[in-house]
Amino acid sequence: AQKITQTQPGMFVQEKEAVTLDCTYDTSDPSYGLFWYKQPSSGEMIFLIYQGSYDQQNATEGRYSLNFQKARKSANLVISASQLGDSAMYFCAILNFKAAGNKLTFGGGTRVLVKP
Amino acid sequence: EAGVTQFPSHSVIEKGQTVTLRCDPISGHDNLYWYRRVMGKEIKFLLHFVKESKQDESGMPNNRFLAERTGGTYSTLKVQPAELEDSGVYFCASSQGSIPYEQYFGPGTRLTVT
């Protein structure tokens, strides 16, 4: 079984500053993927970034980067130059590739509020 | 290209009633998933379709929940009879057969059972 832990239920960040959202995971499968999703107040889940367990480099997508520390089993999301539109819930998730099916296991989420 | 759509966006029903949620995946996506988030809890996997077949339904909470995917296109999730603890947001997601792990989510259906 796999598990995702997001220890920050909520946080404030000043506009234009960077913010790091913590995510630790637990899995016995050597082949897995880590995902971050954003859920704004409108409710939809928006895929942000993906990191494979065998990827040598940290994933980056625009202002989003994933600080992947495999030995520590952490996959923190870094949002650079925060914008007001970044205010949302953020979910970390894991998918084990060797397991049957493609189900994502999610953490409890972190609510980010960007202050002007 | 249209994204994943879900209907209704919000449903309020009384305990004991029946509700059917619908999900239309992205055109051409063979994989369709249902997830839900009950109040204050994590988003939990319910089941996974590959075309019209149930690949994994290990997350379905009990036999009051019935999911179908007619012809491998849209899917419905029926709750009958609804209980108070079924309240939450039900998400649908879809992915291509070639990249099954890139799941695109719909906006969710907020179900309130009173």
Structure description:
The complex is a heterodimer of chains A (116) and B (114). In chain A, 0% of the residues lie in helices and 52% in strands. Chain A is built from no helices and 12 strands. Chain A has 116 residues and is an all-beta fold. Chain A is globular. In chain A, a hairpin with a 6-residue loop joins strand 5 (32-39) and strand 6 (46-52). Chain B is mainly beta and 114 residues long. Chain B is built from no helices and 11 strands. In chain B, the strands form 2 sheets. In chain B, strands 2, 4, 5, 6, 9, 10 and 11 form a 7-stranded mixed β-sheet that branches. Chain B has a 4-stranded antiparallel β-sheet with strand order 1-3-8-7, with no helix packed on it. In chain B, strand 9 (88-95) and strand 10 form a beta hairpin. Chains A and B meet through strand 5, strand 6, strand 10 and strand 11 of A and strand 4, strand 5, strand 9 and strand 10 of B.
Offer a quick outline of the entry.
The complex is a heterodimer of chains A (116) and B (114). Chain A has 116 residues and is mainly beta.
